[in-house]
Every structure is written in structure tokens, then in C-alpha cells.
Amino acid sequence: MEHSKTPDNLSRRELIRVAGVTVLGLGAVAPAVAESPDSPRRRVLRIAHLTDIHMTPDRKAAEGMAACLRHIQSQTDKPDLILTGGDHIMDSIGADAARTKQQWDLYQAVLKAECSLPVEACIGNHDCWGLNRKSSGTTGSEPLYGKKWAVDALGIEREYRSFDRAGWHFIMLDSTFPKDDGYIARLDDQQFDWLAEDLRRADPAMPVLILSHIPILSVSVFFDGENEKTGDWVIPGSWVHIDSRRIKDLLIKHPNVKVCLSGHVHLVDRVEYLGVSYACNGAVCGAWWNGAYHECEPGYALVNLYSDGSFDNRYVRFGWKPEA
Ligand SMILES: [Zn+2]
Fold first, then answer.
1. Among 73, 78, 139, 165, which lies 20 to 30 A Cα-Cα from 42?
2. 287 CA to middle of ligand 1, Å?
3. Residue 55 gets which letter from DSSP?
4. Which domains are assigned to the chain?
5. What integer pLDDT is reported at residue 324 of this predicted model?
């Protein structure tokens, strides 16, 4: 960030403002909404956010997902709703039809057997079948190619959508923008226009939660590169939304947007920026069912939403130990 004025030229008020932006820019944790004493805060919904389950027939993943679901449902203060944040299966970008079916079948079987809570899902990059045509053996003309398989398997009506629940407006985005034989993280123009229109139409008094697989803004992505070797920070467009500035510009026009939840990085962080809290909520599978990824153990987040637009978000480990 560059400032055109030197500190000497800044007024005290401006200094405080600049300092405030810096403090809130990365990593600082502040309440989402300043509580006013005359607005009583009432919890309206308790959510478990499960991201990056990465179901596979290997590494006891089915047992791990079952353990996670049991942990959630045995909480004394049980959640009302589960949000699954994408990468439900290990991978279908480069997997053939048989392997993709095996992973989705297993995911659905565990969910059916172990989950009695309502579930709302968004799609992750690994849920998109056959984007790597060479290794998946797809042509691109299969009826289930791309996101169709995930839409069907997750029982959602389309790739991105919104709904209201308990006085909050929920927006489920589709972060995966196919590119070459892989993807980058961005909304295509059609989805961006839909998002702008959805926010324009939403009741401005209703707080908004946005769920995306890939973070719109995240600080933990800085820990996932070769920066010390190369001498540069390099954050690929597949790690954080490459269109995050455009999305941020839209979100700040709608002060009722309070929280953006994501996964993908398999790490936990929270960024407060211009009135929006961006929480990246680890991974159910940790390091793809091999234990912890960096310091992040397999887990999920418990998120409380309140009537005044505030929320809290806590990462919970469920004690999963990898196959020896
Ligand atoms: Zn992902």
C-alpha cells in the first residue's frame, strides 16, 4: 500500500485513520459489529462449517468424516445447520469417471449414515470433474463434465445461489473458474453480475454471510510458498480469488455483508477488512487425512450468527489421528 503523503504532512486524524487501516488490514481480530447497548444480541443460528473433507477410499477418510459428523452432533450446544465449503472429494479434476463415482458414492454414504442435520453446500475445485482432460480421460462433452457431477451429488439446484434463513441472507459462490487443464479462483462475469444483483435486491437490514471455497481474502496463504528461496511473495491465482479487489469493491457498497467463510488453504485465519470479516476455516481432512497441515489439525468451525448482524467463529478439532 502506498500513501501519497509523508507522515509529516498527515494530520493527527489522518494518522489515526491510516494506522487503523494498517491494524485492521491483516490478521487483526475485532468484533464484526460494534455492539450498541440498546440492541440486545440474540443468537439466531448455530452453524458447523466443514470445508475440505476430501473423501477418498484411502487413509480411513470415511471413518474420519464420520468421526467429524459425530463430534458435531454430540455437542451439547448442537448446531442447527451444516455448511460444506467445497472439496468434498479428494479429486475429480484429474480422475476418471469410475474413480470420481467411487469418491462421491462414499461421501454420500457417510453423509446419509451419519448426518441428521440439514446441509447446504458450495462447490470446490476438486469437485469439478475432468478439467484435466488428459488425466481424467474426459472430452468435455460428457453430461456430468465439470460442475454438473458435483451439482447432482450435492443436491444443489445450481453452481451458485442464495437463500434466507433465521433472518440472515446466505450467498453460496462458485470460486472455480476453469482455465487450461486446471482452474483459477474467480467469478465469471455472469456470476459477478448475479452477485451484484442479489446484493442489490437483498433487504439492507438483513445481514449477509457469503460462503466460497477459495478465500476472497486470506493471510495464511503467505505461509504456503517458496518466498524465502525466491525472495518474492508469490500468491497464485488459484489460492485466493484473483478478482478479490472487484469483489471487495462490491461488498463495501453493502454494509450488511458481515462475514465471508472459506476453506481451500487447509489453514485457519481471519482477516478484518473494511467492515467484513474473512474467516478461512481449516480442513476436515487436515493434511489430506495424513494428520495436521502445518499447525492446522483436522477440524471444523462452529459459527454463531446473531440478530444484530454480529457473529463468532471458533475452530474445533475433533481429535482425528491419521492411519499409522
Ligand atoms: Zn480447494
1. 73
2. 12
3. B
4. 45-218+230-317 (3.60.21.10)
5. 79
